[in-house]
Amino acid sequence: MKTKLSKAFVLLLVVLVQLAAFVPAHAAGQSGETALAPLPSLNDFVASVKDGSANTVRGVYVPGKFALPVIQQPEGKGGYVSRDDGVVTQYGYAARKGTVGLLAHNYLAGSKFTTLAAGQIVQIVYGDGRIVNYEIAHVYRYQALQPNSASSILVNLDDNKQYTAWDVFQKVYTGGDHVTFQTCIEANGELSWGRLFVVALPYVDEANPSNK
User: Fold this and answer.
1) d(CA 141, CA 157)
2) In this structure, what is the dihedral angle of CA atoms 178, 138, 27, 188, given to the nearest 10 degrees?
3) Per-residue pLDDT tens for 119-157?
4) Which terminus of the chain is more solvent-facing, meaning fewer CB atoms within 10 Å of its CB: N or C?
């Protein structure tokens, strides 16, 4: 029993560190509202991020929305999120659990996550040029009762129910192969007022179910 409790405590610490990464220290002079550039074709985007790494996510492409390169967290830094605009960070702990977690600050690339909606196709690009398709199934928005606390109780804006950070982590980052986008929600002058999670499940072409 003691071992099980210890493991649960470690996992809880992991999620708190991860959520803490989305409490911006200061964003003055930085904004995700940069000049819009033409969206590259999927082929051109793949060519720009491909580096031969077969098992490494190098880009995320959402037709009509955005094409963003993906970097990985440094070893041992589960709370790291890039502060470079136009770059998304892959959440390492989620990757080890078989989920593609994509993180970005809401004043940088994360501002684009707010344009996502159910039914849109998400294309994950690997370093060898391989593309895996997903379809957005869920968009979850929460208010953080303590915006600057990683352990804040989160209120689901759809049903007004309260959840712990651990509850939300389990909901969006476990359950097998899927993609989860995460950023903060800005409101009332507070950059980290809430949390946004967009979940995309493996895409199944109804005309050809064996083709993802």
Assistant:
1) 6
2) -160
3) 999 999 999 999 999 999 999 999 999 998 888 999 999
4) N
